[in-house]
Amino acid sequence: MLHDVAEEGSEPTPSALRTAYADVLRSTVEAVGPGTVDAETDVEADRIEALAAGDSPNFTVEEAAAVLAVDPDQPDAEAIVFELRDHLLMGMTTGVLDVDTIAANVEVDLTGQEIQQAIEGRTPMTLDQLAAIQSVIDGRRA
Q1: Domain total for the chain?
Q2: Is residue 117 part of a domain?
Q3: Is residue 4 part of a domain?
Q4: Is the overall model pTM greater than 0.85, yes or no?
């Protein structure tokens, strides 16, 4: 799933995480077929095709979860998003991080309040934003 794509022992940089997200999404599309993903999600067909072709469209977390959930071996999209949010919040607790500290250390232009809203699901979070946030959280726990 999205929260556990980083390799154990590797440095969780935003670019490494973003590449890993794209790889796991691409693997799902390859396994079930772009047509199936198109039919079972609200993600535009051209973005699914771009992913399958090796590009890395910037999906929202919800879109990525929908793609992953097409795989019958994965939980539904809602469970994937819930588990991701839980992972981020637990990481913040373990790493003794607050949203303002994360905001001060991310390479994306988000305030502490915007990070909190994204983690809680009150605003959409892109995979680029997730990679930046997860990098800070996982880096602090390492």
Answers
A1: 1
A2: yes
A3: no
A4: yes
**How many C-beta neighbours within 10 Å does residue 49 have?**
15
Considering the domain boundaries, does residue 3 fall inside one?
A: no
- 80: containing domain: 9-142
Q: Average pLDDT of each block of 10 consecutive residues along the chain (142 residues)?
A: 66 89 95 95 95 93 97 95 94 92 92 96 96 91 64
How far is 122 from 117, CA to CA, in rounded Å?
A: 5
